Amino acid sequence: AQSVTQLDSHVSVSEGTPVLLRCNYSSSYSPSLFWYVQHPNKGLQLLLKYTSAATLVKGINGFEAEFKKSETSFHLTKPSAHMSDAAEYFCVVSPRSYNTDKLIFGTGTRLQVFP
Amino acid sequence: DTGVSQNPRHKITKRGQNVTFRCDPISEHNRLYWYRQTLGQGPEFLTYFQNEAQLEKSRLLSDRFSAERPKGSFSTLEIQRTEQGDSAMYLCASSLRDTGPSYNEQFFGPGTRLTVL
C-alpha cells in the first residue's frame, strides 16, 4: 500500500528565510511523488513531481525537492520564503501501476510567512 | 480559460436531498478523477474514468454516490439522500494518459463546496 506522512502540520518562517516542508512516503512500487500547493479559495496547483528521472527536482516559484530512497523522503525546500508562499502544501504519492494512477495525499502542511 | 471547471461552486442542501455536481475537464484529457476534501485533511480519491469507462472506485464511494462520464467528456457526481457527513469540498481533476514526461499530471478544478444542513 502507498501512503505519505507529512511530519509537520504547521510551519512558520520569516520572509527571506529558508523553507523546509518534510514528507516521508511508503510505497510497494517505485512511486511517482508530487508536491501540490493550495491557496485559500483556489484550486490545487502542481509545484513539482518526481517520476524516477533526476532525484533533485526543480519546480515552480523556486521550490525544489529531493527524492531519497534510502530515507523514503521527499522534502520540499525553498532558499528564501516570500509572503505569497503562505498556503497549504500537500505531499502526494501515486503508484506507477498501469491499473491505477490515483493520487494519495498527505494531511497537509500549512506554511505561514511572517514579514 | 482552458482549465478544469466545476459547477456549482457552492451547494447548500438539506439532509435527505439529492445533489448533482458537474465537472468539465481540460478538453484533450482522457482521464477524469473525483476527490473529496474535508476540513483540515488532504483530498481523498473517490473514483476515476478513462474516457467513458469508470475504472476504479474507492470504498469511500458508498451506494448513495454515483458518477458518470457518458460521452467521455464532462462528468457528473450525484449524491442521493445526503447526510451531514457528506459536507466537504468535491474536487475534480483531469489528466492525459501518457507514459512520457507528463505522466499522471493531474490538473484540478476549483471544487464544489457542499454543505448539508
Structural overview:
The complex is a heterodimer of chains A (115) and B (117). Chain A is mostly beta strands and 115 residues long. Chain A is built from no helices and twelve strands. In chain A, β5 and β6 (44-50) form a beta hairpin. Chain B is mainly β and 117 residues long. Helices cover 0% and strands 48% of the residues of chain B. Chain B has strands at 5-7, 10-13, 19-24, 31-37, 44-50, 53-57, 65-68, 75-79, 88-95, 107-108, 112-116. In chain B, the strands form two sheets. In chain B, strands 2, 4, 5, 6, 9, 10 and 11 form a seven-stranded mixed β-sheet that branches. Chain B is globular. The interface between A and B is medium-sized, with 23 and 28 residues.
Topology:
The complex is a heterodimer of chains A (115) and B (117).
Chain A: E1 3-6, E2 10-14, E3 19-21, E4 23-26, E5 32-38, E6 44-50, E7 56-58, E8 64-68, E9 73-78, E10 87-94, E11 104-105, E12 109-114
Parallel strand pairs in A: 2-12
Antiparallel strand pairs in A: 1-4, 3-9, 5-6, 5-10, 7-8, 8-9, 10-11, 10-12
Chain B: E1 5-7, E2 10-13, E3 19-24, E4 31-37, E5 44-50, E6 53-57, E7 65-68, E8 75-79, E9 88-95, E10 107-108, E11 112-116
Mean pLDDT of chain A: 91
Radius of gyration of chain B from the CA trace?
14 Å
Shape of chain B: globular
* Helix percent band of chain A: under 10%
Strand content of chain A: over 45%
The biggest beta sheet of chain B reads: 7 strands, mixed
Beta fraction of the residues of chain B?
Answer: over 45%
Helix content of chain B: under 10%
- Major sheet description of chain A: 6 strands, mixed
Number of helices of chain B: 0
Largest interface: A-B, 23 and 28 residues
Give a summary of the structure in a few sentences.
The complex is a heterodimer of chains A (115) and B (117). Chain A has 115 residues and is an all-beta fold.
